[in-house]
Amino acid sequence: MAKQEDKKKASSSYSAKDIFVLEGLDPVRKRPGMYIGSTGPDGLHHLVWEIVDNSIDEAMGGFAKHIRIELLKDNVVSVTDDGRGIPVDMHPKTKKSALETALTTLHAGGKFGGDTYKVSGGLHGVGVSVVNALSKWMKAEVYKDGGIYVQEYHIGVPQQNVKKIGTTEKTGTKITFRPDEDIFQKIEFDRKRIVDQIRQKAFLVKGVKMEVIDTRGDVPAYYAFHFEGGLLSFLSYLTEFSDRLQQEPFYVNKDYEDMNVEAAFVYNNDTETQELSFANNIYTLDGGMHLTGFRSALTRVLNDYARENNFIKEKEENLTGDDIREGLVAIVSLKIREPQFEGQTKGRLGNPPARTAVESVVAEALKEFLDKHTQEAKIIVSKGLLAAKARKAAKAAKDTVLRKGPLEGLTLPGKLADCTSRNPADSELFIVEGDSAGGSGKQGRDRRFQAILPLRGKILNVEKARLDKMLANNEIRSLVIALGTAIGNDFSVDKIRYHKIVIMTDADVDGSHICTLLLTLFFRYFRPIIEQGYLYIAQPPLYQIKFGKEMRYAYSDGEKETVITDMQAIRGARRKDKAEKEHDDVSDNTLETPEAKEKGINIQRYKGLGEMNPDQLWETTMDPTKRVLKRVTIDDAQAADRLFNILMGEKVEPRKHFIQSRAATVKNLDI
Question: Which among 56, 98, 273, 563 is least buried, having the fewest CB atoms inside 10 angstroms?
Answer without folding.
Answer: 273
